[in-house]
Amino acid sequence: MIVLVMGVAGAGKTTVGNLLARELGWTFADADSYHSPENVKKMASGIPLTDDDRKDWLARLRELIQSWEASGENAVLACSALKDAYRRKLVISSNVKLVFLRGEFGLIRERMMLRPGHYMNPDLLHSQFETLEEPSVAEAVVADVSAPPEELVRSIRAALRV
Description:
alpha/beta; Rossmann fold; five-stranded parallel sheet; 7 helices; 5 strands; 15% strand; globular
């Protein structure tokens, strides 16, 4: 199984995804590590990425997911996957499960302001919410980020039966 933990910047994708992978003994990857230097520079400067900016990034992530699936490896990928079109590129089979970390703008902005050393400019949070096309509960496990990470992982594991 490949679990794609998605949501806006600051929702806790890396924290929750890493904790989930650690508990399960699975591979963990953060999609932020697959951005081009140009994309990182744009985001750090407060410039939202376009669909064109994300094209190669999504292709790299799709290849990563395909490699995990081909080798039968269980993995967790933390990735914004804000649009349905992006998720369609990444959910390559029924083996890929979506987990959507949903949260209120104010709470997530507050968390972003406390996050040291991350390149994502907190001013981009508005554009993240504007871009976000929330998956339905039929498409994804939906988790409220106001809960502590350990509680989120417990509910995600229960929903996915892992």
